[in-house]
User: Fold this.
Amino acid sequence: MATSVFARLPGFRDFPPEDFALRTHICEAWRRVSRRYGFLEYDGPPLEPMELYVQKSGGEIVDQLYSFVDKGNREVSLRPEMTPSLARILGARSRGMSKPIRWFSLPQLFRYERQQRGRLKEHFQWNVDVVGEAGLAADAEILAVAIDGLRELGLTSEDFVARVSDRGLVQMLLGTLGVPEDAVAAALAVADKLGRTPEVSVRERLVADMGFPDDLAERILEVFLAPSLEDLDAQLCSNRQVSERIESFREFLARLDAMGLGEYVEVDLKIVRGLAYYTGVVFELFDRKGELRAICGGGRYDKLLELVGGEPLPATGFGMGDVVLGELLADRGLVPTFRRELDYFVVAVSPEERPEALRIAQTLRESGKSVAYSLREQSVVKQMKAAGREGASVVLILGPDELERGCLVARDMTSGEEREVVLSDLM
Assistant:
């Protein structure tokens, strides 16, 4: 009978130790930064009611879900993102919690999407959110966390940039230009293609698909492509409301400057984030060379908790995936070299020393040391080779003489130096 050979599903990953080490390296950096900023870690179930995601993103998301009807006849889905779960969790308990709520999570997420560079059907994601604070301080804090998450991994301002915008400001600007309120969302969706689609194509869509006059389409493009906030302010200096919103946005940028992070930040009004629930400051982080997909995206979403049945609370946050980030670290030579590491390898010269060797190994383990030994009877030469493969720093050799005198020979595997030790010396 032929043995079946099972291949890994497309878009999914195995994590042998060397790959798992990179994942751990990234996740531990994310945790360190989160905790430095005072965030608490949480998690939720990997399976949620499908309606939770439809309520947030609309029916079009269904095609991107790993969804099915469970044995309780419920429509459920593997989580494609974490924010709806956060909203559900807080919706049930936020009223009794002190504000702001500062939480982070590192979930594995699943989306049934076309596999391409930087995008798989599963990934691990760093989610960081501040809930219950409407001020610009929360927006700046969130972006600072995202920037520091990359700096913690060795990336600098030469490697990545945070492109920031204010969705509320952009909506206000479009209204000032005469874009009807019910057409703003669609206009944003078209403009969101700028940077990935030629300007002429975007202009054509604004005219042909949206029905805008040529001059209005041109003015819309001028807003999104404005070289600076000062330029925008000059164009619309007669509009007090717009000027006040621009000044507020400047305060957000000034906070980042005060934190020493200004060199990482660029204003780019083309960043509007495709998801309709964003309401204020939004941002995306990109590699400076422009070779990869966005590393991170986020912003303010003040209406989501209310949308899924919770109390109306302001919120801001981001998600950063490990796939694109792993590629960027590899491109910049920042993936740590994988090494097997072991404190001690215990070598028994003969079977007579085996019981004492086991006792010594277990005593060292109980003291917090990492210890291995050969699981079969082998020559000293083979045991020494095994110690090298295991990455042992020191080999502890126990022969009949050492057993009699209650000591060990410790051999440093880097220098080759040997010295006689007793067990208490190693604790």
Summary: The chain has a mean pLDDT of 91. The chain has two domains: 17-331, 342-426. Residues 17-36 form the longest helix (20 residues). The first strand starts at residue 40 and ends at 41.
